[in-house]
Amino acid sequence: MADPRIFGSHNGSNHAEEPGRRLYNPYKDLQIPYRAIYDLPTSPEFLFQEESVAQRRSWGENLTYYTGIGYLGGAVAGASLGLYSGLQAAEPGDTLKLRVNRVLNSSGQTGRRIGNRIGVIGLLYAGMESGMVAMRDSDDWINSVLAGLGTGAFYKAANGPRSAAIAGAIGGLMVGAGMAGKQVLKRYVPI
């Protein structure tokens, strides 16, 4: 007898219990374990065994992640700064419509500008980090710090060697502090 939970019943009545009626089972003659179709695994599945060993994102995922997070974070921060400057620029005789327009223009312009800058920094960092992993054939904190150094230096290279060196040092220190903070969180914060 077929399971009425799988094949359902009409109008809330159970036809399997009515005399002279039976449920149609379309899988009966196929000789396949059709119930096993619904037993899906809960762990991630990998095509190759090497993929299960690597515990990091691919370079494309890395590129998308850092660029997207950078742009989104920069756009939100820039829009907040633009909101503040738009409210500060309001004059006493402005109408509500003019004030709203000023705030929206200022938020949009500042959000785009800062979002684009930080998105480009994320793009450079992701590319350099993926390049370091490929060059060194290891995945450790050194790759991240070197990528931060290179990103800062490359981003400010057009302003001269001194600006590039300072920006590189700032980028390396920021990434180093972020990596140290990540290790502290892993060690002392139970998640």
From TrEMBL:
GO terms classed as biological process: protein import into mitochondrial matrix
GO terms, molecular function: protein transmembrane transporter activity
One Pfam short name: Tim17
Keywords, comma-separated and alphabetical: Membrane, Transmembrane, Transmembrane helix
Coiled-coil stretches noted in the UniProt entry, renumbered to this chain: none
Compartment list: Membrane
Protein's name in the database: Mitochondrial import inner membrane translocase subunit TIM23-1
Membrane topology, from the record: Multi-pass membrane protein
